[in-house]
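Example (one chain per record):
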Amino acid sequence: MIRIQGERFVDEAGRTLMLRGVNLGGSSKVPTSPDGDSRFPQSLHNPKDASFVGRPFPLDEADEHFGRLRSWGFSFLRLLTTWEAIEHAGPGIYDEAYLDYLFAIVKKAQDYDISLYIDPHQDTWSRFNGGDGAPAWTFDVAGMEWPNFPATGAAVLQCESGDFYPPLIWGTNAIKLAGATMFTLFFAGTDFAPQLLVEGQPIQDYLQGHYIEAIRRLALRLAELPNVIGFDTLNEPNCGYIGWKDLSQPMAIARMGFNPSPFESMQLGDGRPEELDFWKPGLPAAKSTGRRLVNPGGLSAWKEGAACLWRRHGVWDQGSDGKPRLLRPDYFATRGGHAVDFNQDYLRPFANRFAAAITSVAPTAVIFVESMPGLPAPRWGKDDATGIVHAPHWYDLLHIITNDFWSWVALDGKEGKLVFGRRRIRRALAAHLAAVKAEAKEQLGGVPVHVGEIGISFDMRKGKAFKSGDFRLQAAAIDRSFRALEDNLLGATIWDYTADNGKEAKDKWNAQDFSIWSRDQQSDPGDINSGGRALEAILRPYPQRTAGQALSLSFDRRSRSFEFVFRSDPLVTAPTEIYLPEFQYPRGCIVEVSDGSYRFEGRQTLVYAHEGATEVHSLRIRPR
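Predicted structure:
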């Protein structure tokens, strides 16, 4: 049993829990049929017929994967689903076979004493504009013609991009016409698109209502399973155009391929060809390779006979000379004479509406609140939902941006500058994560923190590790992230574990290869660790249950030395439990404790009983 007590997760004995696990899994973003892989256009042709049964893996593989994860010390999961997986066939039509399948998967996880929370995942809105999440029909009700998105520059899709598809280019879809429009409608359609009604409802109410009802139905289906502790509100929500101060200006930090301003995107989507710079990423900055004509065929991103939604709302129009004019460059930045605040005006009300719906069928469910990446948590008040967790994502940014790793340099995400030297890097990354952690107290009033995503790309340096099986560079990269976590005594779910990861399709989504396990690299099916990648850094000791408050935690992957200090709680009588991976200590280990006694339970758990007369206790473990 996992519950919230102040700023901690605790078990039934009152012990502090450190929840460590994985996101399961990367390929859950795409269907199993037809052609469940973002590289292939066939998977976009029949959205109503898509099936996600078998994501994250077929039911007959569940024992294998859950057994491996539990052996690796992962007793907690962030389990991916998508709105599309539940309601792809049309508004109000739910895939009962998928809901039954997901129930069976979650129940099987319970057999392995694995707890989890549900992540309704999305990236840049939907598969149909180059991401994942929302069903295709959401574009239909907004009046958008999604098959025309690539030609009109409204989105970039891997299956339409040829050889030019750099890492993270998919993320630019959030600020292109299709994604930015849908996010704006979902969070703020009532304010910014009041003319757009669907079945008599404002588009914002319609979209949010269907999304929340789909996840509520899943919550109802899983309500009897005690290992489901809660639900994420929405993976990495995006503000779309909300708050954009000048629609004539593009976002400078997203220069990959075409980088139109919102005004240029609106013109392109309205069937007007435009010449734009074509950018290739590079250091220290992206470079233009020249100008190219976009949408030469004059296709429209809108349904036949419909003009651009934003033109209809007076954002822009065509002048008497036939040239487009931007009439309201700050249209999305103000409302009622006041500057808009995405977090407070739109994200917070949505999170509260979501929480109310979920807890109506699962009263004890914990709500994992996510903010838009780069924004702090919303400010929470006494009238807002209770039983929440701050669930930010945190990545080693320079590695993510470059898809490479150097031990001597990193990007300080807090200060926005490069930092050099291993000691300075460790302090800077720890400080950045400490600032993220502090938001739980400053913005949300003191709630637990769980880092929903942390991880690295295994595809760095053109996939050389996949060919050689040498993941030492990746181990160094993920170790740096784990140290930042441990310096802040935080739990996290690694992005990701993809059961069908392979050399060609990788995680089966937008050329990403983040999985800590790969079927293609499994040489010995009888070895639980075979196919694991960078395990020397990932499988590390940690305190699963602490009879008090953790004070410090460290693991050195080279010496395999583990140190842990905590202050005991006199009201907690149950012992402290440490996960000790056999992978790190195949010949056993030497344990030094400040007081009390210890014993081993099984091969991978150390049970420590401290002395009641002592307040602060320490353990040191090293290989035998």
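Caption: Residues 422-442 form the longest helix (21 residues).
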